[in-house]
Amino acid sequence: MMELHALLERLKLEHLRTQLDGVCEQAAKSDLDYQGFLVRALEAEWRGRQQRGIDIRLRMARFPWLKTLEQFEFECQPSLDRKVMRELAGLSFVDRAENVVLLGPPGVGKTHLPPVSG
User: Fold this and answer.
1) Domain ranges of the chain
2) Which tens digits make up the pLDDT trace of 56-70?
3) Is pLDDT of 117 > 70?
4) Is the dihedral of CA 88, 89, 93, 94 positive or negative?
């Protein structure tokens, strides 16, 4: 029988291979059945692949710096409603086919607001 790590490598499940111990520990603590464990394991792989894709696209975009909504200093812009910004971060306006326009004078942080981190 092939060793588990070798199988994961052959199947190119590299994210699961690096997180396998943690996934197994979580499954044992949660007393998961086989199907539940498999779901958690595959979710770990999927999240890793998704994050790698995001990282690659950000590198390819060659942004001079990466700013996220979590880094935004709302204290410097007290007129900005955090709740509205969190709602915009959820991107529900896309599903509703609505536009969003950020208006304001230079230097108030409009450029910092997008992109939304995920």
Assistant:
1) 4-61, 64-118
2) 999 999 988 877 788
3) no
4) positive
